[in-house]
Design goal:
single chain, 95 residues, mainly alpha, 3 helices, 89% helix, elongated
């Protein structure tokens, strides 16, 4: 594997780790808020709306992040290769 390919893989793995961390934080935050506010919601109809809204946020945001990762995986040579080349050019220009 060439140096460029190793750098591309490292950037991709870093983005995957960051995305997984963001998904975990999103789920933890939404579920925490849902649990902490549950006792203060007096009406069962409102509870249902809150649960549906929380589920929609979790499902759509998780799906969007997973779709982004899939796109990055399919096109990582172009996406990360361009970033690396520009970063190298900028670094060389400053030297």
């Amino acid at each position: 594997m060439s140096d460029l390919q190793q750098r591309i893989e490292a950037l991709y793995r870093s983005d995957v780790r960051g995305s997984v961390l963001l998904i975990v934080c999103l789920w933890a935050t939404i579920l925490f808020v849902l649990l902490m506010t549950w006792a203060y919601i007096p009406d069962s109809g409102i509870k249902l709306v809150v649960v549906i809204a929380a589920a929609a946020v979790l499902i759509f945001n998780t799906a969007a992040i997973l779709a982004m990762l899939n796109h990055y995986k399919e096109d990582k040579d172009f996406i990360y290769g361009l970033d690396i080349k520009n970063a190298d050019a900028f670094r060389n220009r400053q030297s």
